[in-house]
């Protein structure tokens, strides 16, 4: 994963998380940041952007940027399937609401994760920054990596801005 500089003081809070998978790994994002989930749309590439920024889509008249989370996390690209989808997120950027999308392999479920199920991110050492990880959600015998989606998307936005 690419280094993202952010203090390690962030911690996931109990609440509802949309879980999704990239390969065998499962992740979660706060449900309040999710606007909708759509099937894969035709993505228009934008020149001179980072490899994880796939381009833009026209979603009911609104043009939104789309990133591929696999590529952003340094994972190999895989062919799209009928389960591949775009999670459309709504985040605040410079005091205004911004919509953007991220391509994931498949959406799993919405989980209510309690405080007792969440552990802080592990110390990954100096070689890997875990700044986009809020915590680890222990659900049954599985671990869901709870993402700070603002940090993930901020990294993508910074990369796109540098390329322009």
From TrEMBL:
Protein's name in the database: Purine-binding chemotaxis protein CheW
Superkingdom, taxonomy of origin: Bacteria
Cellular component, GO annotation: cytosol
Short name of any one Pfam family annotated for the protein: CheW
Species assigned in the record: Humisphaera borealis
GO biological process per UniProt: chemotaxis; signal transduction
SUPFAM superfamilies: CheW-like
Domain CheW-like: 14-158
Gene3D superfamilies linked: CheA-289, Domain 4, SH3 Domains
PROSITE patterns: CHEW
